[in-house]
Amino acid sequence: MYGTYGMGFMLKEYDFTFGGFRGIVVTSFSSVIIIVILLHILLTRTRTGIAMRATAEDPELSSILGININNIQKLSWFLTGGLACLAGAMYPLWFQSYPASGDYMITSIMAASLLGGFDNIYGSIIGGFGVGISEIIFTSWLQNTIDPGLGRWRPLIPMIILVVVLLFEPRGLTGVYERIKASERGEKIISLIKGEK
Amino acid sequence: MMELISPFVFQIQGTSRLIVDIAMYFGLFVIVAMALNFQYGNAGVPNMGCAVQVIVGGFTVSAVSTRLTFMLLESVGVQLLSYTSEFDWVYNNQINISVHTNPYIKNHALFGAAIFLFSIAMALILGALIGWLISLPAIRLRSTYLMITLITMADASQIFGRNIPFITGGTLGIFVPNVFAWYPGDRGVIMAVITLIIGLISFFIFRTMLNSPYGRLMRAIRENEVTVGSVGKHVVGIRRNILMFASGITALAGVLIAFYYSYVVDNAFRRSDWTYWPWLMLILGGPGNNAGTFLGCVLIVAMRRIIIIYKWIFEQYLFFPIQYLENILLGLLLILVIIFRPEGLIPEKLLYIPGVNYAKLIQERVKVDWRSALEGRGKKSSIKDVLNVFRAKKEEGNEEN
User: What range defines the domain where residue A184 resides?
Assistant: First the structure.
């Protein structure tokens, strides 16, 4: 009969190639960009998105202002489920996966969202890339330079990130950005980057 | 060979074996779920890291108690195979335990009992220590952050256990001494009895704590942290103390399961087994309520053990592998409970402290010394007294009019 790992599957061979890259690389990157643009438009330009942000900030106050919190929360759950499902659909194209793989990803996902900050979608992009890169590239660099046996400690990396972020800046990169913006020197640096006087 | 590894394990078979198994697991899970009820139901500390504390108990037995047993045996003069290097620790372990240690304990009952008590004391200390350690990053922050850290800590502890062979022998696991080798009957029975006794003791400890002034302080923190802080109580410190205390008790479950299996491996302490199932028991029974915790524990442990033991019957009716039935049931039950009975099977009642005379309290507006309330248990007020007082007051009002 089948064991737990016997249910594992991988859809690598069904993937197409595009300009020398595997199709999933192109698809995942482009879909990230499209989704972020769409979410940005939704959250800043439409009434629903603004209501959503208001509900996240203070549910009671926004319900006084006539926002139907239940519907807004249902919509945000709907969006969350859809986006997570999209990620899940792309996962088996690159990694070996089986019905319980979500359990193994949850740490990295939480570390990524915490690194980015819970209240910011741009932060979560940086956080996602940061955790992913540190987990894969940093580990392989350590394995090449110091000891190949270090690879077994890889799952510990997101946890270390998580603990460090919580100890020093619980709001993640969003908090760091705001702290820089609040100081005089940081203000100058930001205005330099933006090209203002 | 089977007898060499674990003598007397299979003396009881069939349905009685199932009952012993259910009793054992009920004892284990009731300790974990009661500690969870203490933290979440009464103090509002969402401890999603029960698995860490249980794992600490298991690792205490494998890394500390087993090593101490070997050292003591060597000092007594029993010839053991080498156990100092990593390789020897893992590969000579089985011979050391089954050929040298267990026969010695069979003749020296006190030695076994001492090792058992030492493990329990050590688990209490190390569990409290780990509770303090995992509370460091997030105890000051919103409870969401605490939950996230604790969920991930369960994985971290498993990774440590898997990768450091000195703790549990890596992926191979470690056999631990059978401290009840002197017991002539089935080891499962005596383990179940001792587990239930320890569960009962911890129940009384928790009940006393909940009825004490500190317990009322905990409930106050659950209801409103800001108010408690404004009265001058150190909310963060209290939350941390609660987490530490409950961690110590939860670690006992790890010790007991290690001695029940006579074997410790990191994969026996998975997050879903030791965090999500106790949470389901708590939510099903009703948080903030020990009776509810007992009910949830009995129902769920019985259901799980019966499914696990008779899985060949259930497997015929399923179109997916039986391994996933457990996780599906966990999710399904959690959703059903949240939809249909969000307050649990037994909802939380108002706090009733034995010894406080409520009728007198209403009648005379007496100043109650809450600290000494527990001492006067004999005087119990019934609902009739309270009703009489109300009736008397009503009559007084009528007369005035």
Answer: 100-197
Pick from B164-168, B183-187, B231-235: least confident: B183-187
At B344-362, the pLDDT tens digits run 888 887 777 667 777 777 7
Q: Report DSSP letters for A120-186, one per residue.
A: -HHHHHHHHHHHHHIIIIIHHHHHHHT-GGGGGGTTHHHHHHHHHHHHH-TTHHHHHHHHHHHSHHH
R_g (Cα) of chain B, nearest Å: 24
Closest CA in chain A for residue B137: A167
Share of chain B above pLDDT 90, in %: 32
Contact (CB<8Å) A167/B136: yes
* Contact (CB, 8 A) for B54 and B269: yes
- B138 and A4: CB-CB below 8 Å? no
B1/chain A closest Cα distance in angstroms: 27
Residues A151 and A183 in one domain: yes
A6 shares its domain with A84: yes
Task: Identify whether residues A94 and A110 lie together within a single domain.
Answer: no
d(CA B211, CA B234) in angstroms, rounded, equals 20
Are A14 and A42 part of one and the same domain? Answer: yes
Number of domains in chain A: 2
Of A98, A130, A156, the last residue of a domain is A98
Q: Which of A72, A98, A124 is the last residue of a domain?
A: A98
A87-109 tens-digit pLDDT: 888 888 888 887 777 777 888 88
ipTM of the complex, rounded to two decimals: 0.80
How far is residue B47's CA from residue B149's CA, in Å, rounded to a whole number? 10
| A94 and A128 both lie in a single domain | no
Rounded distance, CA B210 to CA B13, Å? 40
Record: contact B145-A110, CB cut-off 8 A: no
pLDDT at B391 over 80: no
DSSP run (H or E) holding B263? strand B263-264
- Answer for the pair B25, B33: CB distance below 8 angstroms, yes or no: no
| Cβ neighbours of B162 in A, within 8 Å | 152
Interface test with A, best of B144, B148, B318, B330 (most A CBs within 10 A): B148
User: Do A60 and A107 reside in the same domain of the chain?
Assistant: no
User: Could you give phi then psi for residue B85, rounded to 5 degrees?
Assistant: -80, 165
Nearest to B131 by CA among B32, B217, B50, B233: B50
A179/A105 same-domain check: yes
A94 and A174 assigned to the same domain: no
B137 interface with A at CB cutoff 8 Å: yes
User: Taking the domains of chain B in order of start, what are their residue ranges?
Assistant: 2-340, 358-400
Type of residue at B243: L
